């Protein structure tokens, strides 16, 4: 029987892969702690040999009519970002995938009345929400799998994906680390203003209200109060969390939702990135393991699953 042996809400901001001299220039001479935090997380978690596969829940990969799971035997190449090609240019990546796990996740779609497809196309794009974190956390020959958010999906849809993922892991023989790759509040400063707000100091968040909302949730994460995070999603939506917080919702769907009380350990500080709130929170496997994913009640769905034959 497989299980999730650790999970994290991690920031992937472009500045973490800029040269150190550039990072310090943007940050008033200081190193950004999102970098030092990832290095510490690598030493304490990812350099261990008690896991088999990493699954990244990627807030930058937005699908439309279904969830998609990467199912290549290997992904390798050079990555240049369409968003910031000056700073993320020809970055090498090379890691194995986990085809069996990817296909097992897709096979669970029917159990949770959703649509999930495993894609092994070698030309499937990759995004920096995956590549930037692999650059810091990837260990040679450890498989990485990516699942995208769905831009037409709401909170329940993303929880259903997480439930399917959690069930697939539990029925496998894999020990899995989950990464919810994305930000907290996520409103950028307008272009004419943003270069005045490149420091990582949280005083540069787009609004004081967004900063307070982020701090609230960080404290709830540290206390293991995932139920409260979920219950207050409508309020948090006012601060535009990245990808509507789909990356976190998929992760917590795999970990039992409000039944999960795993406390978070913070790596680095809470930091600004041109108006957005960024933090690294890691949730260790509780004694006895994470709770089982919840069942899905699809009785009120407006459209049957699967597609009519």
Biggest pleated sheet: 6 strands, mixed
Mean pLDDT equals 97
Strand content: 15-25%
Q: Strands across the major sheet, in which order?
A: 7-2-8-1-10-9
The unreliable regions are: none
Task: Give the termini distance in whole angstroms.
Answer: 33 Å
The helix content, as a percent range, equals 25-40%
Number of helices: 10
Based on Cα principal axes, name the global outline. globular
Q: Report the radius of gyration as a whole number of Å.
A: 18 Å
Order of helices and strands: EHHEEEEHEHEHEHHHHHEE
Number of strands: 10
Oligomer: single chain
| Protein structure class | alpha/beta
Can you walk me through this structure?
By secondary structure, the protein is α/β, with parallel strands linked by helices. Helix content is 31%, strand content 23%. It is built from ten helices and ten strands. It has helices at residues 20-26, 33-46, 99-107, 128-137, 155-170, 191-194, 208-223, 226-231, 233-236, 246-254, and strands at residues 3-10, 53-63, 67-70, 74-79, 91-96, 116-119, 144-150, 175-181, 264-273, 276-284. The strands form three sheets. A six-stranded mixed beta sheet has the order 7-2-8-1-10-9, sandwiched between helices. A hairpin with a 2-residue loop joins strand 9 (264-273) and strand 10 (276-284). The longest helix has 16 residues, at 155-170. It is globular and about 50 Å long. The model has no long low-confidence stretch (mean pLDDT 97).
């Amino acid at each position: 029987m497989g299980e999730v042996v650790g999970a994290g809400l991690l920031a992937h901001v472009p500045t973490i892969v800029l040269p150190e001299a550039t990072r310090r220039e943007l940050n008033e001479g200081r190193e950004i702690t999102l970098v030092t935090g990832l290095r510490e997380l690598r030493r304490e978690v990812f350099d261990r040999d008690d896991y088999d596969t990493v699954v990244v829940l990627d807030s930058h990969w937005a699908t439309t009519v279904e969830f998609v799971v990467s199912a290549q035997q290997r992904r390798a190449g050079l990555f240049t970002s369409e968003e910031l090609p000056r700073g993320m240019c020809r970055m090498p990546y090379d890691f194995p995938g986990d085809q069996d796990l990817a296909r097992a996740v897709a096979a669970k779609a029917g159990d949770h009345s959703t649509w999930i497809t495993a894609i092994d196309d070698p030309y499937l794009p990759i995004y920096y929400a995956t590549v930037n974190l692999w650059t810091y956390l990837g260990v040679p020959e450890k498989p990485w799998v990516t699942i995208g958010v769905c831009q037409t999906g709401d909170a329940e849809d993303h929880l259903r994906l997480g439930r399917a993922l959690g069930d697939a892991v539990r029925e496998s023989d894999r020990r899995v680390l989950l990464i919810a790759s994305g930000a907290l509040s996520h409103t950028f400063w307008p272009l004419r203003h943003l270069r005045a707000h490149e420091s990582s100091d949280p005083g540069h968040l787009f609004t004081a209200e967004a900063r307070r909302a982020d701090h609230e949730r960080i404290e709830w994460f540290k206390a293991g109060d995932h139920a409260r995070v979920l219950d207050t999603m409508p309020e948090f939506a006012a601060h535009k969390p990245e990808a509507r917080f789909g990356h976190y919702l998929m992760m917590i769907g795999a970990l039992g939702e409000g039944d999960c009380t795993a406390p978070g350990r913070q790596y680095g500080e809470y930091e600004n990135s041109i108006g957005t709130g960024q933090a690294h929170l890691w949730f260790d496997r509780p004694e006895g393991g994470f709770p089982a994913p919840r069942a899905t009640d699809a009785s009120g769905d407006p459209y049957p699953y699967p597609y009519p034959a």
